[in-house]
What we know:
The protein is mainly alpha-helical.
Amino acid sequence: MIDFALEVERDEGKSSRDSIFEACQLRLRPILMTTMAAMLGALPLALGTGTGSELRRPLVSRLLAG
C-alpha cells in the first residue's frame, strides 16, 4: 500500500495525504479479503477434534492470533 501511495504521489503529483487516501481506497479491500480468507480457512483446523488435532491447534492459534 505504501509503494502504491508513493507511486501515485510521484506520478500524479498529488499531496501525501491524497495519495495515501487513494491507496487506502484501492488496496485496503484486497488486503483485508486475503487476511479474512486465511483466517476463515484456518477455522476448521481450530475447531477440529479428529485425529492429530492436538498437533495442529498450536499452529492455528498462532495463525489466528497474528
